[in-house]
């Protein structure tokens, strides 16, 4: 395919060899000019700072003072032996992976319900999508006030119903705060994801479903052996995307708890932000960011490999 | 397609379907509860909210909306958010489709390498580049300007854009472009007048996805805009959460106003939305 692309301009020009070569390089030079603006911005804004992060991660830079020393791998050693970091990692796993699994399950359920509708499906598709227009940040901001101990909606409802003991300091209690965060992140119908699943459900050939039914398959069996394998591609994409996004969960934590009480509800992204800017340990923060990068890269590669192998099987 | 086929079958409304509709409606209402709650409370005063948290507004008073603009930086933040969103979108459309076309048409090994370099960015979380970027922006005097936020967004969105456009351009026939070139059109003109219009489906999807995520972004403006700027809507709101502990009604009002543009965008481009959301994902 690529070889074909390369040969084509040469073939068009025909003629003598030098002319052909000149035409070929000119074509590539012009195409490079087309790529240049995006490439320059991308290299300056993504690649260069990422590489610089690796360098900074080997220093004790505070983020302000121009002078700093190289400390080797000391930052990495400190991070990997720090309880605070492992707590943040654990929270990230609970919130990121947990929400990826739960939201995908909710979205799939909603898509299956939508697929059952033969009337007004368009209308219901629209209203199911609507909540997805509210960003995680805005939702978290509203929740912060709804969860207020004295005047919040949640505790008010509980007290009105007579469950005075159930009214809690939702965001200030070490034991439950991460669970509350998970609940708020998963309090969605997974709008985008649900619609992607619906599109995939509708492309499942009805003949296959009918054939399975004639062969005596139960509803559960049809789903397990016909529908589910056909969804594997969409599940791969959605789970991978959500897990990658999950590693960098930040907005909800920043708004609702700011990592508190203490460091209890910190996530990796919040930890890096706090250490790098709040505690003036830019070198240390950079090292944590590199650890995050390695984890994200590993997740992407592994998730893709695992799910693709399953897809082929199906 | 399958939808119209099903409709032709002219089935009656079954009890099962009614149950499904009821379940979906309840789910949507439940999930929308926080937003509905904030909307109702944006019409109430602080005293009313704290006295009876579950009470309903007594009238349709827009006093909170007026006060939000008079007593806080919200108006300026709204303009900032608009400048960042529109500015980033325009620049993205100016450079990304062109680059994707160049990558697909340059041919040979360089095509593959440049593509992979861009795609690698999908695996680089913003946190990895954040600390060096802040110090560089400080050095060149761009820190806490909207320009810095736009530039950082551009780099972040380029990878996804290249992925989306390249996969689409693979299916665009070459013959039309070649005909235009034989007719003597320069490559730049060929691109903008022949190729770009053919990319419209992917452009509409890209613009909608990016518009939403730019409008809703919190982390990047939080890091790059300090208190010398009014910030974006989300940054302004988060500052208000810290400062206005006794003005809940303004926070609710601000939250509702932040959602309005997304809803308008959705209402106007509903068709593209739902198509756009699946364009990226079904293919992958």
TrEMBL record, chain A:
Transmembrane segments: 30-51, 93-114, 126-146, 176-201, 222-250, 282-303
Keywords: Cell membrane, Membrane, Transmembrane, Transmembrane helix, Transport
Occurrences of domain ABC transmembrane type-1 (ranges): 89-303
Record bears the keyword Transmembrane helix: yes
Membrane topology: Multi-pass membrane protein
GO CC field: plasma membrane
Top-level taxonomic group: Bacteria
Primary residence: membrane
GO biological process: transmembrane transport
Location in or out of the cell: Cell membrane
UniProt family annotation: Belongs to the binding-protein-dependent transport system permease family.
Protein name: Carbohydrate ABC transporter membrane protein 1 (CUT1 family)
TrEMBL record, chain B:
PANTHER family reported for this sequence: ABC TRANSPORTER PERMEASE PROTEIN MG189-RELATED-RELATED, SN-GLYCEROL-3-PHOSPHATE TRANSPORT SYSTEM PERMEASE PROTEIN UGPE
One matching Pfam family: BPD_transp_1
Domain ABC transmembrane type-1: 78-269
Name of protein: Raffinose/stachyose/melibiose transport system permease protein
Any GO CC annotation of this UniProt entry: plasma membrane
Family: Belongs to the binding-protein-dependent transport system permease family.
Transmembrane parts of this sequence: 20-40, 77-101, 113-134, 140-169, 190-212, 250-269
Membrane topology: Multi-pass membrane protein
GO terms for biological process, alphabetical: transmembrane transport
Keyword Transmembrane: yes
């Amino acid at each position: 395919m690529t070889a074909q692309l390369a040969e084509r301009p040469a073939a068009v020009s025909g003629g003598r060899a030098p002319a052909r070569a000149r035409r070929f390089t000119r074509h590539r030079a012009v195409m490079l000019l087309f790529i240049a603006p995006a490439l320059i911005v991308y290299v300056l804004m993504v690649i260069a700072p990422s590489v610089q992060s690796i360098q900074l991660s080997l220093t004790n830079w505070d983020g302000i003072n121009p002078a700093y020393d190289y400390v080797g791998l000391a930052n990495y050693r400190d991070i990997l032996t720090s309880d605070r970091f492992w707590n943040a990692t654990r929270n990230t796993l609970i919130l990121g992976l947990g929400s990826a699994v739960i939201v995908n399950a909710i979205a799939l359920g909603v898509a299956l319900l939508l697929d059952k509708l033969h009337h007004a499906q368009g209308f219901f598709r629209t209203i199911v999508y609507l909540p997805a227009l509210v960003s995680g940040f805005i939702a978290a901001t509203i929740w912060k006030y709804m969860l207020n101990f004295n005047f919040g909606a949640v505790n008010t409802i509980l007290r009105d119903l007579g469950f005075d003991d159930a009214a809690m300091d939702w965001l200030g209690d070490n034991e439950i705060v991460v669970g509350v965060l998970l609940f708020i992140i998963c309090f969605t119908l997974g709008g985008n994801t649900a619609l992607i699943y619906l599109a995939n459900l509708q492309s499942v050939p009805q003949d296959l479903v009918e054939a399975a039914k004639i062969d005596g398959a139960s509803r559960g069996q049809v789903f397990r052996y016909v529908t589910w394998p056909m969804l594997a591609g969409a599940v791969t994409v959605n789970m991978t995307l959500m897990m990658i996004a999950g590693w960098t969960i930040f907005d909800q934590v920043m708004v609702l708890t700011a990592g508190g009480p203490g460091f209890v509800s910190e996530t990796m992204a919040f930890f890096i932000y706090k250490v790098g800017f709040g505690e003036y340990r830019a070198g240390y923060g950079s090292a944590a960011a590199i650890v995050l990068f390695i984890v994200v890269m590993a997740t992407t590669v592994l998730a893709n490999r695992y799910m693709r192998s399953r897809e082929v099987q199906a | 397609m399958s939808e119209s086929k099903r409709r032709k079958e002219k089935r009656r409304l079954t009890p099962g379907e009614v149950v499904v509709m009821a379940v979906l409606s309840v789910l949507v209402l439940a999930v929308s509860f926080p937003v509905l709650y904030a909307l109702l409370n944006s019409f109430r005063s602080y005293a009313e909210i704290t006295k009876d948290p579950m009470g309903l507004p007594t009238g349709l008073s827009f006093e909170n909306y007026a006060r939000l603009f008079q007593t806080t930086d919200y108006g300026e933040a709204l303009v900032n958010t608009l400048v960042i969103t529109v500015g980033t979108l325009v620049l993205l459309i100016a450079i990304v489709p062109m680059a994707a076309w160049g990558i697909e048409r340059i041919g040979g090994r360089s095509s593959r390498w440049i593509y992979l370099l861009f795609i690698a960015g999908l695996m680089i979380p913003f946190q990895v580049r954040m600390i060096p970027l802040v110090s560089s922006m400080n050095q060149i005097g761009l820190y806490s300007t909207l320009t810095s936020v736009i530039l950082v967004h551009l780099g972040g969105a380029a990878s996804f854009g290249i992925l989306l456009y390249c996969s689409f351009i693979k299916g665009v026939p070459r013959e039309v472009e070649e005909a235009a070139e034989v007719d003597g059109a320069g490559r730049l003109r060929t691109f903008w007048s022949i190729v770009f219009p053919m990319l419209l489906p992917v452009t509409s999807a890209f613009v909608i996805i990016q518009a939403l995520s730019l409008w809703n972004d919190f982390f990047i403006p939080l890091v790059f805009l300090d208190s010398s700027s009014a910030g974006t809507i989300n940054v302004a709101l988060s500052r208000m959460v810290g400062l206005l502990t006794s003005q809940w009604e303004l926070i609710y009002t601000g939250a509702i106003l932040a959602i309005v543009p997304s809803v308008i965008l959705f209402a106007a481009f509903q068709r593209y939305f739902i198509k756009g959301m699946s364009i990226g994902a079904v293919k992958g």
